[in-house]
Amino acid sequence: MLLKPNKNANPDLTVMAASSFVLKQLKKNQFETMTDLRLALMENNKDSVSLLESSLEFLFLLGLVEYHSKNDLIEYIGS
């Protein structure tokens, strides 16, 4: 779970890459379920599925996403 790639890291298996993909999915559809995001990430790169929670935490810290527990939805709130 690397935030910043180094020379030994696979760039596709970093939190930054997973966050970028998740953000792209959320920009298409303002709301997504965790299951839908997991399936989309799995289709993109099955090895990066384990980075979903970390990438959502990263996007939450940046103020780009919000979680609605009542409906189990992730909402894109970025500008």
How would you characterize this protein structure?
Helix 1 packs across helix 2. The chain has helices at 15-28, 34-44, 52-61, and strands spanning 31-33, 65-68, 73-76. The protein has a single domain (11-76), classed as Orthogonal Bundle (Arc Repressor Mutant, subunit A), CATH 1.10.10. It is 44% helix and 14% strand. It is α+β, with helices and mostly antiparallel strands and 79 residues long. The chain has a three-stranded antiparallel beta sheet with strand order 1-3-2.
Features:
3 strands, alpha+beta, three-stranded antiparallel β-sheet, 79 residues, globular, Arc Repressor Mutant, subunit A
Topology:
Elements: H1 15-28, E1 31-33, H2 34-44, H3 52-61, E2 65-68, E3 73-76
Antiparallel strand pairs: 1-3, 2-3
Helix pairs in contact: 1-2, 1-3
Secondary-structure arrangement, i.e. CATH architecture? Orthogonal Bundle
Helix content: 40-55%
User: Which structural class is indicated by helix and strand composition?
Assistant: alpha+beta
CATH topology: Arc Repressor Mutant, subunit A
Taken in chain order, the helices and strands follow as HEHHEE
Strand count, sense and barrel status of the largest sheet are: 3 strands, antiparallel
Radius of gyration from the alpha-carbon trace, in angstroms:
12 Å
Strand order of the biggest β-sheet: 1-3-2
* Domain tally: 1
- Shape descriptor: globular
Number of helices: 3
Provide the β-strand percentage band.
5-15%
